[in-house]
Prior knowledge:
By secondary structure, this protein is mainly beta. Helix content is 7%, strand content 35%. The longest helix has 9 residues, at 2-10.
Amino acid sequence: MYKHFLNIAFAATVGLTANGQNDLLRFALPEKMPATVNSAAEESLPIISTDGSTLYFTRTGHPDNEGGKTGGQDIWQSKAAATGWQKAVKPAGLNNAGNNSLIGVARGGSRVYLLNQTLSKKKNNPGLSFCDWDDAKKIWGAQQIVAVTGLEVTGHYYGAWVGADERFIFWSLPGVEAGATNDLYISTSNDTGTTWTSPRWLGNMVNTGMNEISPYYDQTLKVLFFASDGHPGRHSRL
């Protein structure tokens, strides 16, 4: 089944006109999140749990981050309530003084994927890890490394997004040459995230000679969204 998905993915076209996009996607005007979520610092990379109960995001330049205002970035969360989004807090066990970002929520919210591999209180390795929720202790368990065959992160910037069904990871990875831009790749799993294939390039119908970053895949629409310096305001439908 996944072989079929890959064949479709790598044949994806980006040649949709602006009118075609409007026919496919209809968005309401954006509304600023309340002060319980936003702060004077920078909020980015929002991900909501599959049941809609928890909003995770990355906060940079905040004095309450593990590394302080001038240190790394931390994962924060806000819970949905009848009165609106509750005051954001840092989930215990997911941050250190380095750069921390959450890039996937799976298993009904009981597993989160992180864009790092923690080595110490201050240092992270590039790669992915996950934490499972310990319901008895009401805390996130220890980080566990996500082993991805052939993964090499050669530059200073990389990104990823893990599907809620733990069947695929979309990557934004830098090239091996000095000054190379980022391209999009995909890794797949046939055993619910236990093993992953080597990142596979998504081809030149998606990638350009410029940066492609911040992938997000909508499983209902079967549309891959990403930011690109090389595509003028388009998206890729799989």
